Amino acid sequence: MHACGSERLRIDKWLWAARFYRTRSLAAAAVEAGQVRVGGERVKPSRAVHAGETIEVRKAGLAWTVEVTGIDDRRGSATDAAQLYRESEDSRAAREGEVARRRAAAASAPPLP
To answer: pTM for this one?
Structure first.
């Protein structure tokens, strides 16, 4: 993992490197739309992220609450990206519950003609 010397990085670039969004522009748009919060506060895409901060990400009806554990200005593999944050247990349980609920609803839906 390549870490920036300053240990600071724009939040849109961090979200892209951590693989929450496929492009930096999508990450910046999500931040502008208020779908990303740092410490419970709305932020701008240019806001610097620091290790130890809590970030909340809402995407496609799912929510992640993660603690920043690393700063990397390059987008690497999914394994590398997973080392940049630690998801809280409550967040993981709620997200997995929502995914299971959606799968059950899809399975019980009548087939399309």
So the answer is: 0.85
